[in-house]
Design goal:
The protein is globular and about 65 Å long. The chain is mainly alpha-helical and about 290 residues long. Helix 5 packs across helix 7 and helix 6 packs across helix 7. It has twelve helices and no strands. About 35% of the residues are buried. The chain has a single domain, classed as MetI-like fold, CATH 1.10.3720. The longest helix has about 35 residues.
C-alpha cells in the first residue's frame, strides 16, 4: 500500500469514527429530548407547592425535584471548593518544586487514584462516617459534608493533572523571562505562569463539575436519600438529581414517572451546561487577556 493510499485510508477511518461518535451523541440527546420534554413543567420542580412560597423558604416541596436541584448544586460547590484549590496547589508543586523522584512517585500515585472506581471512594466515605459516629459523635452519619468530601477526593486527580500538564507545557522562554528580570519563583507563578495556564486549569474545573454532577455511586453510600428536603446544614442528609434519576429508573410504576426521570435528566444537563458556560467565559476572558 502506497503512502497516499494509506493516508486516505486513515482519513476515511477517522471521519467514520467521528461520524459514529457524533451520531451516538446526537441520538442520545435526541432520545432524551423526545422522552423528557413532554414532562418539563413547573410541577416537575415544585410539585403542588407554590413556587414563590418555596423560594421564600416558607413551604417545602414533597413531590417535585426542587430540593434535588439545590442538593446537586450544594454538592458541586462543596466538592469543587475543596478539590480545586488543593488540586491546583498540588499540581503546582509537582510541576515547579518537586524533584525527579517525588514527581514520578507522586505522579504515579495520582494516576492510580484517577482510576479508582467511584463506588470504592463512596465506601471509603461511608466508612469514615461510621468511624466518626462510633468514636466521636453519635449524631454524626452519612451527610452532605461526607458526600462533598468524597466527591472532592474523586475529582482532585483531574485538577492535579490539568494543572501540572498546563504548567509543564509552557514555553521555556516564558517560564524564565520573569526570573531573568529578578522576579522570585512565587512572583513568577502568580503573575506569569498561572495566568497563562488558566485555560488548562479551567478545563480541569469543567471536567470536575461534570464528574460531580453525574456521579451516583459516591452519594448513594454517603448521605443521599429520596425525600430529605433542602439541606439545612452540612451535616444533614439531602436529595440529588443523579439519585432521583437512578431511583425513578429502577422504581417507576408507570410511564408518567419514567417521563419525570427523563425530564430530570434534561434539567441536570441544563445545570451542567450553564456551569460549563460560566467556566468557558472565564477561560476565554483569561485566554484573551494573556495572548
Amino acid at each position: 500500500m502506497t503512502g497516499n493510499s494509506l493516508e486516505k485510508t486513515v482519513l476515511v477511518f477517522s471521519w467514520t469514527m467521528v461520524f459514529i461518535l457524533s451520531s451516538s451523541v446526537l441520538f442520545l440527546l435526541g432520545h432524551l429530548f423526545i422522552k423528557g420534554i413532554p414532562g418539563l413543567d413547573i410541577n416537575l420542580i415544585f410539585g403542588t407547592a407554590d413556587p414563590l412560597q418555596v423560594l421564600l423558604g416558607r413551604q417545602r416541596v414533597f413531590d417535585g425535584i426542587f430540593a434535588a436541584i439545590i442538593g446537586t448544586l450544594c454538592l458541586i460547590i462543596i466538592a469543587t471548593g475543596i478539590a480545586v484549590p488543593m488540586g491546583i496547589c498540588t499540581g503546582i508543586y509537582l510541576a515547579e518544586y518537586a524533584g525527579n523522584f517525588s514527581k514520578k512517585a507522586l505522579g504515579f500515585f495520582f494516576d492510580v487514584l484517577t482510576g479508582i472506581p467511584s463506588i470504592v471512594i463512596g465506601l471509603f466515605g461511608f466508612s469514615a462516617a461510621v468511624f466518626i459516629h462510633q468514636h466521636f459523635s453519635e449524631n454524626f452519619g452519612p451527610c452532605l459534608l461526607i458526600s462533598g468530601m468524597s466527591l472532592a477526593f474523586l475529582i482532585m486527580p483531574y485538577m492535579i493533572h490539568y494543572t501540572r500538564v498546563s504548567l509543564e507545557s509552557l514555553p521555556i522562554d516564558l517560564r524564565r523571562t520573569a526570573l531573568a528580570f529578578g522576579a522570585t519563583r512565587l512572583q513568577n507563578l502568580r503573575y506569569v505562569l498561572i495566568p497563562h495556564t488558566m485555560s488548562g486549569i479551567v478545563s480541569g474545573i469543567i471536567l470536575s463539575i461534570g464528574r460531580c454532577a453525574e456521579d451516583t455511586a459516591v452519594i448513594l453510600l454517603t448521605g443521599v436519600v429520596v425525600t430529605a428536603g433542602i439541606p439545612t446544614s452540612l451535616l444533614s442528609q439531602y436529595e440529588a438529581l443523579p439519585f432521583y434519576i437512578y431511583y425513578l429508573s429502577n422504581q417507576y410504576t408507570d410511564q408518567a414517572e419514567l417521563s419525570k426521570g427523563y425530564s430530570a435528566c434534561l434539567i441536570l444537563l441544563t445545570i451542567c451546561a450553564i456551569l460549563f458556560l460560566v467556566a468557558l467565559i472565564i477561560k476565554k476572558k483569561y485566554t484573551l487577556k494573556h495572548e
